[in-house]
Structures are given as C-alpha cells and as structure tokens.
Amino acid sequence: MKNRIITISREFGSGGRTIGKKVAEGLNIPCYDSELIEKIAAESGFHKNYIKEAGEYAPGGMLASAFAHGTAGPTNEDYLWKIQCRIITELAEKESCVIVGRCADYILRGKADCLRVFIHADMDFRAKRIVEVYGEREASPEQRLKEKDKRRAAYHRFYTDMKWGHAQNYDLTLNSGTLGIDRCVELIRQLY
C-alpha cells in the first residue's frame, strides 16, 4: 500500500478531532471522523447515533458473557466492528488520509504506512475545553471526561487486546494542553 495514513487516537476533550481535521487540511488530504460513522450506517442499516455510541462501548453484560463462552452468536457491536475494519482498510487502500478514532491504529497495523498518534491533555485543560467548545455543563465536566475515556479504553481493549493510550502502541504522543492545538498540528504535519 503506497498511501500514507495518519491515525489519531485521543482522550475526550483533548482536541484530537480538531487536530486531525487541521492536519488533513494542511496536507490537502481527506479526514475521516464522522464520515466513518455515516459510511458504517449506510452499510449496516443501523442509525448513526447508535453506531456512534456502540463505538465507545465494549460489549458487556449477559450477552457478551454468553458469546465469550460460545453460547450465543455475534453481537451488533461485533457486526459493526467487521464493517468498520473493512471500511477503514478500504479507505487506506484508496488514498492517503487522516483517520480519527475507531481503532484505526490497530486495524491498519501491518497493512498501511501509518503514523499512529495519540493526543492527550490534563484534566483541567480538557474540562475547560469541553465546556467552551462542546457546551458541556460546567457542573461536572471531569466526570463526563472520565466516563468517556473509560468507555473508549474498554472498547479499544476489547477489540484490540491493547491498552488504549499506552505510549508503546503509538509512534507519537502529544500533550495538546501543553503544546497547544496548532503546535500539535505542525508537529504531525512535519512527520508526514
């Protein structure tokens, strides 16, 4: 595969989506984020809100337990995972691009020339950012951050058996709270 792919994994509120979009704009290549959800929805028949939520939850409860023990069939999440893997692989084969989230770093391992990036920041930076940028209520943004990160980590672990955010799983980890969004964009573009 001759295309160069940048995958952006990120903590909630760290600006990873914004960084991915700015990197893609600067390199004049496409960025796939919500577009992935739309592609998965079109192919699966599931509503995009369901796909967005399913992409941050590891299958759990009695059904997943039964599946793990061979007493039940695949879950909706497993079905969506297979579609997601295929779509991400096809996008990487088609063109150079930036892919935000959805375990693209893992899906493309060994299949593409990939720069795997993880964006993180401290709790104060992220809490302030989700209130200002996403309109989260100011009462408890820290709790919302913890919940979202916990779900993303569980989903990533379930499907990849890798620790989400663990530096050894990425080529580059950047603290957007310290470096700033624009500096992160610049550093990633330089490595492209």
UniProtKB/TrEMBL annotation:
<protein>
    <submittedName>
        <fullName>Cytidylate kinase-like family protein</fullName>
    </submittedName>
</protein>
<keyword id="KW-0808">Transferase</keyword>
<dbReference type="GO" id="GO:0016301">
    <property type="term" value="F:kinase activity"/>
</dbReference>
<dbReference type="InterPro" id="IPR027417">
    <property type="entry name" value="P-loop_NTPase"/>
</dbReference>
<dbReference type="Pfam" id="PF13189">
    <property type="entry name" value="Cytidylate_kin2"/>
</dbReference>
<keyword id="KW-0418">Kinase</keyword>
